[in-house]
Amino acid sequence: MEMWELVARERIRETIARYAHCADTGRFADLVELFTDDGVLEIDGRLPLTGRSAIAGFLGSTKASLASTLGRPFIRHHVSSLTIEVDTPETARAASYFLAITERGPDHWGRYRDQLRAVGDRWLLEHRRVRPDGHSERSWRASRGDTP
After folding, report:
1. Is position 148 within any domain?
2. Domain that holds residue 134
3. Model confidence over 84-141: pLDDT tens digits?
4. Residue 129 near residue 116 (C-beta atoms within 8 A)
5. DSSP character string of 82-137
6. CA 27, CA 59: separation in Å to the nearest integer?
């Protein structure tokens, strides 16, 4: 493995970790900057969100839903089993599992499937597909009427 690929892999890991940390701390402006300008956030069962503005709008409504549903509106995303395929010095794919926890305990879980692109010295999400696999009965996600 060449040095450029090792650097790419670490920067991709940082992007994926930063996404979870930004989501969990409500730093949605920072989270949106992890997408390319024309990036897509696709959540199974919903229409894809294209562009930073559309993604920011969705995240704002998600924050409001958490605040109105939970006594302590926090969420923690745990991301694991990350695999990265660096296709070229400018493009890569990643796959991982996630588990989201709220004050009620395990809330929902699933998979991320990412396409990333190098932009300057950063790797940004060009397309993130969120594939929920399930949720607990008392979950915040279930209270929104979302299905796995």
Report:
1. no
2. 3-143
3. 999 999 999 999 999 999 888 898 999 999 999 999 999 999 999 999 999 888 766 6
4. no
5. EEEEE-SSSEEEEEEEEEEEETTEEEEEEEEEEEEEEETTEEEEEEEEEEEEEE-T
6. 10
